[in-house]
Amino acid sequence: DCADSDELKYASTVPLDEVGDPEEDEVEFEGDLDVLGYTFQSGARAAAADSQNNIIVTGNCWEEDAILTVKYDTNLNVISSTTYSGEEGDVSAHSVAVDSQDRIIIAGAKYIDGDDHFYIRIYDSEFNVEAYHWHAVDRAMYRTYVAVDSEDNIIITGRDDDDFLTIKYDSNLEQIGIPERYEGVGRVDQPAGVAVDSDDNIIVSGYSSDQDNNADFFTIKYSPSLTQITNRSNNLEEDNYGRGVAVTPDDEIVVTGSMGNSILTQKYNSGLTAVLGEDTYEDEDGASPHAIAVDSEGNIAVTGDHYTPTLWYKGYLMLYSPDFEILGSVTYWMIGVYSNSSYGVAFDRDNNIIAIGRVAGDREVVIKFDGVAAPQPGPDPDPAPVEEEGEAEVVGGSGGSVNPNEGETARIQFKSNQPGSVTVRVYSRRGQLVWEDSKETDGSDDEIEWAARNAQDNVVSSGIYIIHISGPGIDVTRQVPIVK
Question: Smallest Cα–Cα separation from 32: which of 328, 426, 459, 247?
Fold first, then answer.
């Protein structure tokens, strides 16, 4: 079956300086991003990382007309896999997300008696099926995208009858509220991605056509209840097609898309009112993007196709800094093959890049590139006690961060100058109050423990959190990184 086929195998690491003349079945690379390894997986389309830094890759196993989902370790060795053939009708997988419990959420399409449906399937971390659901739409084959918020609610978006359609579910796939439809004024409105920010606002991006059917980047920001907050069009003279969206740690919104034969990537402020930075990648032979991702430091990865006169297409990956400085790029292909491409991109917990592409015309490849290493700021797991009155420290966790999925907590240690009440407030980087607690202290060393949960007792999203400690003689602000 798919899980045992030759299309699922690990290929040894192929460093750039050792590529030379590749043997048969080897991928060739050109560029300055280091290759850590690659593997072939039939029909691979999308990837995500879990809290253990395992890589989840999903797509369509063409040999069995089924969805194949594989879990790899950090070295791209296969841990486990599962297939689903869709007993009631044909199925396809388009995107994947992982929630705070390491559950795996697959989104795609299901075709029953000629009718299209958005399809969602949830596995636990061992690939046991927990829930599944489908929603009747028109034209689900144009891809369905999925994201998960801080409370493990599931948001999907896709195209329905030439409109954006976005639906929110709880963690058990019970629908929350009414699906939100965006109907533009032109012929086609096509979503190309969904993301959530630190306040669980929902960002959907793609392209929309005007009354003259000119295409333009189009991004919508919804509240957690799917009430539209704002939207943005580029209104450029040349047609431009949005192909992906991501959110930075500071809640800035990054989109990418094609403009003529070029790749346009832009960063907006959280209110979608200003362009904070952009880059246009131009090549005389042309290029087109397919996906975008942002790492824990705000670095941006864009992947797609690079056209060439001799090979038609090569897979393409660009890595930018938050300020759009080019940190590296790479193209990849198989020798003598004329159809290579790149479908998806994600970052693992170490900010390495996972690219999903196609080589040899009909073989999909999962490639791990060296990204920009995540820094290790944060609490000292075993510091000296707080000695100065009016001081406070955050301790706990390991490796400079706190992972609530491992049972780690942040201990806020403090020493006031007299008895009284000490309050700890935890804020997101945008200033939203996440959690607070108080206790009476006698003026000696004391501490308050935060389990990396919000006021609703849900595990918070990964990111940097601001901790303010106040009380008799204490007014201190500290930071703690949460990494799941």
Answer: 328
Q: What is the rounded distance in angstroms from the CA atom of residue 412 to the CA atom of residue 482? A: 14
CA angle, corner 158, sides to 210 and 171, nearest 5? 145
Q: What is the mean pLDDT of residues 200-229?
A: 90
pTM for this prediction: 0.77
The 10 Å Cβ neighbour count of residue 169 is 21
Q: What is the mean pLDDT of residues 274-299?
A: 89
Handedness of CA 118, 123, 127, 128 (dihedral sign): negative
In this structure, what token pair is assigned to residue 55?
């890589």
Instruction: Read off the tokens for 40.
Output: 């072939």
pLDDT at 385 over 60: no
Using CA atoms, how far apart are residues 165 and 160, in angstroms rounded to an integer?
A: 6
Distance CA(380)–CA(154), nearest Å, equals 34
What average pLDDT does this structure show over 153-157? 96
List of E strands, 309-409: 312-320, 326-333, 341-347, 353-359, 363-369, 391-395
Question: Residues near 364 by Cβ (< 8 Å), separated by ≥ 6?
Answer: 7, 40, 41, 42, 43, 44, 45, 59, 343, 356, 357, 358
Cα-trace Rg, the chain: 23
More confident position, 247 or 381: 247
Give the bridge partners for 60, in sequence order. 67
Residue 45 structure tokens: 């389309």
* Residue listed under structure tokens 């008799």: 472
* Whole-number Å distance between alpha carbons of 307 and 305: 6
